[in-house]
Amino acid sequence: MNTMLVLLGASTGGPAAVKAFIDALPDKPLPVCFVLANHINEGSLPNLQAMLNEHPFIDAEIIDQYKDIKPGKLYIAPIDKKISFVVQGKVILTEEAWSKPYAPNINELFAESLELRDVEKLAIIFSGMGEDGSKNAELLTESGVDIWCQTIESCIQSSMPESMMKTGQVTYKDDPAGLAAQLVILLEALFPVDQYA
Questions:
Q1: Which of 38, 96, 124, 154 lies 20 to 30 Å (CA to CA) from residue 15?
Q2: Among candidate residues 26, 8, 27, the one with its CA nearest the CA of residue 17
């Protein structure tokens, strides 16, 4: 599949950080599909979707059924139901709840994504409280998935990135705009230039 799956994890301060990251991406199609798990109350999801839909080449949607993993999409994980991935290149909504205490649960998102064995993946942890995501850091690394983090000084709440950094598995750190710039460099290295046409 000529599309990279980029898993975004965030909590407190996350919406603003993820928006800054998306806004910093170039105004052109990119061969990347984002899936965002942000600890947030359910009533705030439509506002989060609208906020992330302002980029001209990114289409943000809340996951409410199966969705195809394809370029230009940003799928937002729901709060009440867990999502999963199937080998046909889809993200699906299950009838299960996320494991407590997190909803959505970033650790589970990371583990579920590994079902997609033939898809290039990247995980990025943004501003947030707690340690969600760090439990499965080694699992990601063992599966060939790089982990990036927002820098502590650029976070509203830094404990989630700090927890991930303490695992020793983080390969790149930057502010949201810097993470976006590094992603573009990575995409250009992985995929041919005509992917962007």
A1: 96
A2: 8
- What are the pLDDT tens digits along the chain (197 aa)? 589 999 999 999 999 999 999 999 999 999 999 999 999 988 889 999 999 999 999 999 999 999 999 999 999 999 999 999 998 889 999 999 999 999 999 999 999 999 998 899 999 999 999 999 999 999 999 999 999 999 999 999 999 999 999 999 999 999 999 999 999 999 999 987 654 44
**Number of residues that this document lists for the chain:** 197
CA distances from 148 to 47, 50, 120 (A): 26, 25, 15
- CB under 8 Å to 31, separation ≥6 — which residues? 2, 3, 4, 71, 187, 191, 195, 196
Query: DSSP label at 70?
Result: -
Question: What does pTM read for this prediction?
Answer: 0.95
Place of tokens 């899936």: 35
Q: Please, are residues 48 and 15 in contact by the beta-carbon 8 Å criterion?
A: yes
